[in-house]
Design goal:
The complex is a heterodimer of chains A (142) and B (116). With 142 residues, chain A is mainly beta. Chain A contains two helices and eleven strands; from the N terminus they run βββββαββββββα. In chain A, strand 4 and strand 5 form a beta hairpin. The longest helix of chain B has 10 residues. The chains are: A mainly beta (142), B mainly beta (116).
């Protein structure tokens, strides 16, 4: 039986032409990203870092993680998670919305394991990000 | 929020458009591209420099400067902690500059073929 749920309060945003949703309580803010510092040896999806209120924030390009084209936007959704902070690049933020529909992992491994759906939110088909799992995966150097 | 510690004294290096920093105590020698050896405080501007670590690892930079400002060393984010040579970041103007362990970074660069 499919894992189907309806939950409120997800921040819905677009990047790389696809829509994503994250639990709103984990989305601290939407920030304008200044010029990034590239980190030698970092994976390609880690676009760089910037300073934000005395903290070093890594910026992740989600489309690159799932095999798409890089997102050129200067905006990002800053996620504060139990194990750290990261910012996901976004081209458009639809706002906070209820998410309805299946929450099946979109793949068996890697990043897709931490994307669930296909769900619906704000009139869009969205992949619901499981942020803690995604973060742990990225922290392992994925 | 990440913890920060205060540091004073860094060797700021330019490699192409990138900037990285090292702790001076981890540099045993700075050698000019002309082959003449000189210590950090005697280096004149111009020409590539080879930084030699205390274990003899070499890393070549385009140019360098000594920074004596007291700065906050910001912790690396969790997503970058697998990079063992990264000690943290300092803010230089509006931008961050990564601070590395010279020895580990030189080994890393040599392994990746990035050393010039």
């Amino acid at each position: 039986m499919a894992d189907v749920a309806t939950t409120k309060s997800h921040l819905v945003f677009c990047c790389g032409g696809s829509w994503y949703a994250v639990p709103a309580e984990l989305a601290a803010e939407v920030v304008t990203v200044p010029e990034l510092t590239r980190v030698p040896g970092a994976p390609a999806h880690l676009l760089g870092v910037f300073a934000h209120r005395g903290e070093v924030i890594p910026v992740v390009d989600l489309p690159m993680l799932v095999g798409g084209k890089p997102e050129a936007s200067k905006r990002a959704v800053l996620l504060r998670l139990s194990k750290g902070t990261m910012a996901l690049v976004t081209s458009k933020v639809a706002g906070v919305s209820a998410v309805e529909g299946p929450r099946e992992p979109l793949g068996q491994s890697g990043v897709q394991l931490h994307l669930r759906g296909p769900a619906k939110a704000a009139s869009n088909t969205v992949a619901v990000i499981e942020p803690e799992g995604l973060f742990e995966l990225l922290a392992q150097g994925a | 929020m990440s913890a920060a510690s205060a540091i004073s004294g860094l060797v700021l290096c330019h490699i192409g458009s990138q900037q990285v920093a090292f702790f001076p105590e981890e540099i045993s020698l700075i050698e000019s591209s002309r082959g003449a050896r000189a210590m950090a405080d005697k280096i004149s501007a111009g020409g590539a420099k080879a930084l030699i670590s205390v274990t003899g690892q070499a890393f070549i930079v385009d140019s360098l400067e000594i920074d004596s400002e007291r700065r906050a060393l910001l912790e690396p984010p969790v997503l970058l902690r697998s990079a063992s040579s990264l000690r943290g970041f300092v803010e230089l103007g509006q931008k961050l500059c990564p601070v590395y362990s010279l020895d580990a970074f030189a080994r890393f660069a040599a392994a990746r073929g990035a050393a010039k």
